[in-house]
Amino acid sequence: MRSLLFVTFVLVLAPNVVSAAPDPDALLKKVFDNYRANTSTGTVSMVIHRPDWERSMTFKSWTRGDDDAIVRFLAPAKDAGNATLKSARGTWVFNPKINQVIKLPASMMAQSWMGSDFSYNDLAKSTEILNDYTHRLTTTDIAGGHTVWTIECTPKAGAAVVWGKVVLKLRDDDVMVEQTYYDQDGKPARHMTADRVGDIAGRSYPLVMTMHPLDAPGSWTRIETIAASFNIAVPDSLFTLSSLQNPRE
Amino acid sequence: MLFALAWRNLWRQPRRTLLSLTSIVFTGALLVFLLSFQIGVYGQMKESALKLFDGYAQMQAPGYSEDPDLRRSLIDAAGLKSVALAVPGVNVAAMRVNAFAILSHGERSFGVAIVGVDPTSEPYVSKLASSVALGRYLDSTDSDAIVVGHALARNLKVAVGDRLTLLGSGMDGSVAADVLRVVGIYNSGIPELDRSIAEIPLSRAQETFSLGPRVTTIALAGKTLPTFQNAVPALGGISRARGLILKEWTDLEPEVRDSITLKYVTSAMLYVTLVVVVTFIILNTLLMSVLERTREFGVLMAMGMRPALIGRMVWLELVMLAMTGAILAILIGGALALYFEAHGIYFGSLGKMMAQYGLPSRLYPDFSASSALIGPGALFLAITLGGIVPYFHVRRLEAATAMRAA
Questions:
Q1: B15-26 pLDDT, tens per residue?
Q2: How confident is the model at residue B356 (pLDDT cuts 50, 70, 90)?
Q3: Collapsed DSSP state (helix, strand, coil) of residue A117
Q4: Which of A79, A98, A103 sits opposite B174 (nearest CB)?
Q5: Contact A244, A94 (CB under 8 A)
Q6: What is the pLDDT of residues B280-314, one digit of tens each?
Q7: Contacts from B4-8 at CB under 8 Å and sequence distance 24+?
Q8: Which residue from B minimizes the CA distance to A57?
Q9: Residue A144: is its pLDDT beyond 60?
């Protein structure tokens, strides 16, 4: 309802809104608030597609605030129980087979997660893009009944980030519909699209997202949110090493 | 007749001839020795670089070196190994699994290359086995053992006997995790290796990374690199027939190949300069002697000797001089090279710098047909060709004017 009102508002008053040039920082903040909320939990299936094979898995995730996230595998059976915890202090991985927690080197955060085209940062819904980049609104378009803002993000001086530039497309219902990552040479390296945006737990949400590494044609990873809830009560103990090792849920 | 005449003419001026001969012999011998030394050192450089870890050649799946994905692995490794071993010149074929993983000890974690090796054949391909400084290398009874480089051990703060956790992903994308016990710490002298390569038993690696019987690489070696190179065409054929790729030493160590090529090019320029300078010195001497002998040639012509024949005689003198010089150069330079080939040249104070190139502090020249013939051959050829100048000079002479020349 809220988005419908907003669309009407945009349609009627579009010229005014466009000229009002919304603050890109605020737009992005709203998108992340919608995506992560204060706390969120979700069940997600992931398909890793390669030209000659495909693999799918299911995991459950919890996030809290900007820093905390925990991801736990449900399927396939071989990987069930593997879990990743990210907090402000670092990132740890738990493996049930060896029953050990392993701290990941910071350099691994930008690396592929579980062989997918997503990095640990992506999976933890990292807010790196909010904090380590400066944002500039470049274009405002109308597409599919929504206003779509294109925001160009360039790394802040001295920020330890891997990308040279990130271009985001945000929709007026606070959903990120496209992300393009450019390497340090300004060449597009990977591209993410929200393939299906729908209502879940009372908010607009990118239900299906696909990441395409641009240097590997025919490879992609798709994640589909099966269930989600937001602003739920999460015990503090959830985002701790002991909970990583001994799941209570 | 002409030969005898030319030979006698040469020794009519023994001092001049000896001087010319000395410069040819000295330059030629120097070229023989330097080239032998260069070939020898580069041979040692190649072999030490390759023996450290790579082996003389590797069989891989196509695309593996560009994108080392575990899926690009060899299925019938055992069969391939026995076929490769049957090729003459191949002494060892070591199956390997190369994978990347995080090794972790307490709060410390580092991303490294995990190499699953067959402890019975690996020591014959790679020197890492013999550079274990603490503890021991893997043996065939090991299962959860790991050997790490000393820089990695320092970074992880582990000692022999400690347990390490390994985390990576298997061939099927599943989580690969393992707990391993450090049995040995090696010190190869190459910081890059000591920091980044850890070895575990092959079967353990295949299990941990869900590879089944697959391996990613077969590392090959022979007695010496030159003898092994004779096996390369056959090995290439075997690889192609199975849809695999044979990585030759030049592919495995492109930096070594490039630096050797560069050094050959720069020293070739030096050698060419040397040959050109000496050739001009000899020609100069000869032309002087020819000018000096104008009256003699006039007399010969007056006696009925055709100018062309005189020209040929003068040219023959030069050829004989060059030939004698070249032969002596090969003998002296070769003797020098062979002596040091047997005893080595010790570079004590430079040892540390040379270790960076994987070189021992004692270097050995390698005297061969090519190192013997290239330098003196080039000298001989240059002088022989240059001899055309006095030849034409003599041909232009006329008896009457030549006899009256000063």
A1: 888 999 999 999
A2: low
A3: coil
A4: A79
A5: yes
A6: 988 888 888 888 888 888 888 888 888 888 889 98
A7: B5/B313, B6/B313, B6/B314, B6/B316, B6/B317, B6/B320, B7/B317, B7/B320
A8: B174
A9: yes
CA–CA gap between residue B57 and residue B232 (Å, rounded): 8
Structure tokens at B144: 């959860």
**DSSP string for B181-209:** EEEEEE--S-HHHHHHEEEEEHHHHHHHT
What is the distance in angstroms between the CA of the first residue and the CA of the last residue of chain A?
Answer: 34
The answer to whether residues B253 and B54 touch, using CB atoms and an 8 Å cutoff, is yes
- Whether B346 contacts B32, CB under 8 Å: no
Q: Which residue has the tokens 């393009």?
A: A180
Band of pLDDT at residue A10, cut at 50, 70 and 90? very low
Chain B positions touching A105 (Cβ under 8 A) are: 102, 109-111
Distance CA A92, CA B196 (A): 21
Handedness of CA B182, B188, B194, B197 (dihedral sign): negative
Identify the band that residue B136 occupies on the pLDDT scale cut at 50, 70 and 90.
very high
Give the pLDDT confidence of A180-207 residue by residue, as tens digits. 999 999 999 999 999 999 999 889 999 9
Q: Give A-chain residues touching B177 at CB under 8 angstroms.
A: 95, 97-98, 100, 102
Are A72 and A61 spatial neighbours (Cβ–Cβ below 8 Å)?
A: yes
Could you tell me how many residues make up chain A? 249
Query: What average pLDDT is seen over chain A?
Result: 85
Nearest CA distance, B102 vs chain A (angstrom): 8
For every residue of B347-372, DSSP letters joined together read -TTTHHHHHHTT--SEE-----HHHH
Helices (H) and strands (E) in chain A, counts: 5, 13
The Cα A35–Cα A66 span in angstroms is 11
Give the H/E segment covering residue A210: strand A203-213
The per-residue pLDDT for range A174-185, each reduced to its tens digit, is: 999 999 999 999
Model pTM score:
0.76
Q: How far is CA B9 from the centre of its chain?
A: 44
Closest residue, chain A, to B175 (C-alpha): A79
